[in-house]
Amino acid sequence: MSSTRPDAPRLMLPGLHEVYEAFVRQSAELPDLNGALQAELWTSAQLGALESTAPHAEGRRAALGDLITSLRDAGTPGGRLFLRALAAMGPRELRGIARRAAGDAVDAPWAPALGRVSVSQVWLIQEGPLDGDRLVCEFRYQDGSSLHALAVRLSYGDAPSEIVVVGDVPALMTAARQAMQAELCVVQPYDAGAVGERLRAALEGAPTLPEECYPALALARHRVDVLTGR
């Protein structure tokens, strides 16, 4: 059912109604995805698109609240999966609202795995004083599947300059070790909690981010919560 029904809650930003409806339509892609990681990446990209155009934090929160309302009222399998993904790895202050809006239906076999990851290994890669530090954090889902890594490059002053999610972690680390043997970089293990706090400070302290950072930003924030045990 559309969010325009007479008894529907009033949107905080009604001028964005068409934007919310576009997200609802796009959520039809979710049931066909292959797993939880793909769904989290999809959700992170949608949240990044919304945040990158939001004028301020208050506007972003209002838009996300409206989006949750629109997805709930749509009542589609894709909309429910979007809500479940938001409940699992969206902004912390809205996870409970999204969880209640999603209901109990399971519209994909991978839905229960959303957000349920544990830390594997964490690495610091230093390629030179002008390139900053690259922090590579490996994660697996609770059943041991879908090894992947969050890779964040921090430039001078710990400003995020690159945020990517790497699926082929062995290939990434093999390339890093080859570069280390050629004395092109230094690779060393890092404490997960320390990395989490460093990344949290970097992500929260940055007034703006490069445009290419936004698609993986929501997923990065969730993984930082995992690193710090929050």
Spatial order of strands in the largest sheet: 4-3-2-1-5
Q: Low-confidence runs (pLDDT<50, min 5 residues)?
A: 1-7
Largest sheet: 5 strands, antiparallel
Average pLDDT works out at: 91
Question: Counting H and I runs of at least 4 residues, what is the number of helices?
Answer: 8
Describe the structure in your own words:
With 230 residues, this protein is an alpha+beta fold. It is built from eight helices and five strands. The protein has helices spanning 17-26, 36-53, 57-74, 77-89, 95-102, 169-181, 192-205, 217-228; strands spanning 117-126, 133-141, 148-154, 160-166, 186-189. It has a five-stranded antiparallel beta sheet with strand order 4-3-2-1-5, sandwiched between helices. Strand 2 and strand 3 form a beta hairpin. Helix 1 (17-26) crosses helix 3, helix 3 runs parallel beside helix 5 (95-102) and helix 7 (192-205) crosses helix 8 (217-228). The radius of gyration is 19 Å and the shape is globular. The two termini are 36 Å apart. Mean pLDDT is 91; it is low at 1-7.
Give a quick summary of the entry.
The protein is an alpha+beta fold. Helices cover 46% and strands 16% of the residues.
